[in-house]
Amino acid sequence: MYVYILASANNHALYIGVTNNVIRRTLEHRRQKPGKHSTYCKTGKLVYWEMIAGPLAAIAREKQLKRWKREWKVALIEERNPGWIDLAAAEFGLAVWKAGR
Predict the structure, then answer these.
(1) Rounded distance between C-alpha atoms, residue 81 and residue 75, angstroms
(2) Residue 3, helix vs strand vs coil
(3) C-beta atoms surrounding 52 within 10 Å
(4) Which of 5, 20, 32, 56 is such that its CA lies 20 to 30 A from the CA of 63?
(5) DSSP secondary-structure letter at 86?
(6) Domain 2-92, CATH 3.40.1440.10 — does that match?
(7) 93 SS3 class
(8) Which backbone phi and psi does 50 adopt, to 5 degrees?
(9) In the chain, what is the straight-line distance between the N-terminal and C-terminal CA atoms, in Å?
(10) Which secondary structure element, helix H or strand E, spans residue 58, and what is its range?
């Protein structure tokens, strides 16, 4: 299981989720229909992900991160990804995400 963080193009909005396939889920976020959070906030840039053993532990980690202050989330992202690059492109070979797609 994976816990992931998506960001908007300007890194202002953050979305935290859990999935068993981070590539598929990132693509789903990028293709969201109007009315969904990832469409409204334009969060589609994968800036952080971590692998977690088991769904219960992954859900617990997701809930933990959602309770964190923004500054803690930013520090977590910048520890692994200081340039806030699109990890879906850098690590998984997907096209770089641009807002408005």
Answers:
(1) 10
(2) strand
(3) 17
(4) 32
(5) -
(6) yes
(7) coil
(8) -145, 145
(9) 27
(10) helix 55-67
